[in-house]
Amino acid sequence: MASSTPPGGDPQSYTSMSVGDVEAIGAHCQMAFCHQLDFLPFKCESCKGTFCLDHRTESAHKCSKAGAWARSRREASSTPSSVSSATRPNILTHEQQCSSPVCKTLINTSLVPGIHCPDCNRHYCLKHRMREEHDCAKLTPLGARPGGTSKEKGLAALEKLRAWGASKRAAVSETAKKTSLGPKTNSPAARAAAINNLKKTAKGDAKLPPEKRVYLHVEASADTTTAKYPTGKFFYNVEWSVGRILDMAAKELQVENVNNRGGGEKDRLRVFHVEGGRLLDFSEKIGKACQTGNTIVLLRGVGPPVPDLIEA
């Protein structure tokens, strides 16, 4: 630092800057025959050189490693993509498409969960998760031995139905001992009286026209609910499906219904038609399967409907 007194003025202080200090602020362009001092120089990512504004591009300074930076960037961006595709569990592929042949919905995503059908061992979207929606009865279960699985399920269901039937007959016999003898239960007069009494006491939608009604006795087995043989008398629309009747009956009898939660067959409810001696399919119309005065029973874990279940 030096001080001087300008002519006719007061003494002032100022700083002197050498030429080397000015050149240290920026950088000289490394292009031959240029060497311009640039206060905001540009660095080439390929050859790592420093250049001015006019020679900042690879073509302008005739870069000795032209394209090296672009190639390294492409390689760096392609490698993580291949690793990520192998490790991400929810990447969308056609292997996770709904198993229904008429559906192209991709399942097992964050928006569309996949529902496993325990009967055919396939995965479906929410729309085709029910057995009647994907024609489950016509499909051979994946991984099953031909002809083996259906027979085993049928025998297990038959044993459970036989056990239920024996307990029900015992309960009916006990009830008959406690009641007075009346007209024979299989006489026309007794049947007509029973149907009239059923129509008087049955519960249902009062707005439903009488010609559209089917009156049924509804029961639930002891292993289905905490109460022992809960019963009820209800009337339903003849056009309603068995699946809808099951949902309504389970609610009325306070039976836990987990059919729509995608669980296994051992927890699923089925509707057994006593007079017909068979399990009803969920898609059947109740008016075609049953008649007024018939009895249906809610059973759990008896397997899918088997046509020759009782005769087997």
From TrEMBL:
Protein name: AN1-type domain-containing protein
InterPro entries: AN1-like_Znf, UBL_ZFAND1-like, Znf_AN1
Domain of life according to the entry: Eukaryota
Residue ranges of every copy of the AN1-type domain listed in the record: 23-71
Record's keyword terms, sorted: Metal-binding, Zinc, Zinc-finger
PROSITE patterns in UniProt: ZF_AN1
Pfam (any one): zf-AN1
SMART domains: ZnF_AN1
SUPFAM superfamilies per record: AN1-like Zinc finger
